[in-house]
Amino acid sequence: MANATLTRTRLKTPNAAAIAGLLFSPLLMAAFALLRISVHPQELGSWLRTNSQTVALATNLVPFAGIAFLWFIGVLRDRLGELEDRFFATVFFGSGLLFLSMLFLACSFVDGVLIAFATKPEEMIGSATFQFVRAAIYAMINVYMVKMAGVFMITTSTIALYTGIAPRWLAVFGYALALLLLFGSYYISWSFAVFPIWVFLLSVCILADNFRRKLQLGGYSP
């Protein structure tokens, strides 16, 4: 009996993966914008009666943004290839996953509040549990999640400077925006838009470079 020969073919990154950052950015910005117009920092829960559906729509957009962000991380690692450094790869990958996990956790808390309000509306607003969850969500998003986004931007910008996977100006711009997130997010209400905008710009540069390479190789197929 002849021995069967098993061969492994290398998985290739699909061309469509490069648009992941373009999908992540508008989805996350739309979710944050809906939350921003629906939940005001100073109110103590009246949004549960008036804007529950809008908030639920925002949290339902987040999982799709998260999937796109995972693909975006994969695209960056694919572009690095053998140039990937273990130290920077660990910080880059870890900060991205921490950002995503805290984003999901914060949205799950919001969904929990919506479910609890739908069950016992009168007991939910003004309760100690609601105040605790509200404070936890605020701290998670505005302190920890934003800081991890800043670390991700600094690490990715450093990798871009040393490997040339992105334009130098975009890496320097990433440093500036990351410092804004790390030290100024508490004072600037629109800081939530910084990270998805930067990811969008980086994705555009990656797509443009991919298109240019395809043309140089003799044709581009989407």
Structure, explained:
With 222 residues, the protein is mostly helical. It has one domain. It is 75% helix and 0% strand. The protein has 8 helices and no strands. It has helices at residues 20-38, 47-50, 52-80, 86-119, 121-124, 128-163, 168-184, 194-216. Helix 3 (52-80) packs antiparallel against helix 4 (86-119), helix 4 (86-119) packs antiparallel against helix 6 (128-163) and helix 7 (168-184) runs antiparallel to helix 8. Mean pLDDT is 81; it is low at 1-9.
Poorly predicted runs are: 1-9
Shape: elongated
What distance separates the N and C termini? 44 Å
Number of helices: 8
SSE order: HHHHHHHH
Major sheet characteristics:
none
**Overall pLDDT, averaged?**
81
Helical amount: over 70%
Number of strands: 0
Q: Report Rg.
A: 21 Å
Task: Please report which band the strand proportion falls in: under 5%, 5-15%, 15-25%, 25-35%, 35-45% or over 45%.
Answer: under 5%
Structural class: mainly alpha
Count of distinct structural domains:
1
What is this structure, in a nutshell?
The chain has 222 residues and is mainly α. The chain has helices at residues 20-38, 47-50, 52-80, 86-119, 121-124, 128-163, 168-184, 194-216.
Chain-wise SSE layout:
Blueprint lengths: L19 H19 L8 H4 L1 H29 L5 H34 L1 H4 L3 H36 L4 H17 L9 H23 L6
Helix pairs in contact: 1-3, 1-8, 3-4, 4-6, 6-7, 7-8
For the structure shown, list the relevant keywords:
222 residues; mainly alpha; 8 helices; 0% strand; elongated; disordered N terminus
